[in-house]
Amino acid sequence: MEHCAFKLRYHHFNEKSILIAWPKEISKRVLEDINSFKAKIKSSPLNGQVLQTINAYQSLWVQFKDEIEDFNKAVLTLQNLYENTSLTTEHTTKNWKIPVCYDASFGLDLKTMCTELKVSEAELIKRHCRPLYTVYFIGFLPGFLYLGGLDKELRFPRKAIPRQKVAAGAVCIGDYQTGVYPNESPGGWNIIGNTPVKLFDPSKEKPCFAKAGDTLQFYPVDLKKHTEIKILVQNDVFINE
Amino acid sequence: MNSKVVVIKPGFYTSVQDSGRFDYLLYGVPISGCMDKKSAKIANAILNNKNDCALLEMTVSGGHFLFKANTNICITGADMMPQINKIPVKMNTAIAIQKDDELVMHHSKNGCRTYLSITGGFQTPKVLNSRSMYKGITENFRLSKNDELYFISTSKPIKSNATIKNVRIESQQQVIDVYKGPEFDQLTDKQIEILAFTLFTISNESNRMAYPLTEFIPNHLDPIITSIVLPGTVQLTPGGKLIILMRDCQVTGGYPRILQLTEGAIDALAQQQVNNQIQFNLL
Are A240 and A209 in contact (CB under 8 A)? Predict the structure, then answer.
């Protein structure tokens, strides 16, 4: 596998952590490189000193158990790991299939978007369900997945005035991104549908089924199916696939 | 034996907090936990509690509580002039509580947050491995009148030699120690000078999530690609507003992160009330 393709910047973020920045780019190759660096840390002796690693689009945060006494030494260790080791095991990722009901009762902005983008509703839904989206990371709200891979034709600016309330499960588009609101919250993205699936459940040991690096695909369901799945979800018997 | 504290009055803003929720950042869950960790640590240590025992965090004005069993408590942080059965009690020391004792706290006279520890910690439900209250994670995010909080009662007193002296809560023109943030190098010399010499005022929108500052600084920096933020991260918005993230902050953000508070500075800032002034000291 090709590795150490990027020039990384190391920053001493606080007493116990280092932030590693990749070039300013949102891409799958950066995400894959970050995930492989994560896996290298995990399988190295350094892992004993590391509490956790968290990533965003082009950054990786490494939190240590104790205060970092010698920042330069820690960076050298990390650099060496990045440049001179190769992964023996590939990390496993999963593909998730998420049902979305694009009915007008949920998709409050669907009509406006179709008019502005000059596409039919069927076409918009088809284009939204086609890509295999990549989960870059989870942030903003608990269980909010940052997804990459939206069809360029579906790019649509955020609303000038955010809504006070967006329903839990709302499937939205904001600029070049698509996402799902895990809980009811204020929000400025355009709502095109709703998923009955729970993106975040604090009563679960693993409160969100997806993780950074996984992929996700939407599939359309009608109102009846949405209600059926919702009942299964509420009774905790729906299995995410 | 399980017993309880009855909340007669919760005070201005009181919540159960512990050392925080660290293992769920990857799911976008904020860390939370005590705002002034140092004071909370002292409160637990004096009772020989583990550091992660849950305490009450009271903000600006404290509550009124009725204990339904014997135990020991300790009060640290801002001085809210605590009284038990109308008799003033000392802070930063173990206090033996008898069944039916009433603790009344008042308006703080020198800081923002007061901690109340109890032997063994408050036994509120753990959600995602922590008792720290947070909207959307725990059932409640603050205490309300008539809430009942469980604890494990004990009549065994704490050995009295554990009084901590000289615990000072600074409440005026606090110097806030900071490191350079990940985007510090993008600042102009002029901006760095303003950051170093301005007395910044804590805005009245401050809460457990963030302390925005009132003064604006001229800014040309563009937003960044969404990245990791931490409690203590100082963000600079395109409009020139400074926002200091606190313990309940989101895990990612899109504004340049120009400074990062030291752990001690977060504790010190957590004791600053709205309209107090602070000055940054770049380490």
Answer: yes
Residues 6 or more apart whose Cβ sits within 8 Å of residue A196: A99, A101, A169, A226, A227, A229, A230, A233, A238
The candidate with the shortest Cα–Cα distance to B235, out of B183, B164, B168, B165, is B183
Closest A-chain CA to B223: A24
Mean pLDDT of A100-117: 97
Contact A56 B226 (CB under 8 A): yes
Segment A35-57 mean pLDDT: 94
The CATH superfamily of B174-282 is Cyclophilin-like (2.40.100.10)
Largest CA distance in chain B: 62
Q: Given an 8 Å threshold on Cβ–Cβ distance, is B263 in contact with A15?
A: yes
Q: Which helix (H) or strand (E) holds B59?
A: strand B55-59
Q: Give me the pLDDT at residue B164, please.
A: 67
Confidence of residue A29 (pLDDT cuts 50, 70, 90): very high
More confident residue, B221 or B212: B212
Contact of A30 with A58, CB cutoff 8 Å = yes
- B77 Cα distance to chain centroid: 9
Using an 8 Å Cβ cutoff, are B216 and B241 in contact? Answer: yes
SS3 call for A231? helix
Q: Is B221 on the interface with A (CB under 8 A)?
A: no
SS (H, E, C) B151-188: EECCCCCCCCCCCCCCCCCCCCCEEEEEEECCCHHHCC
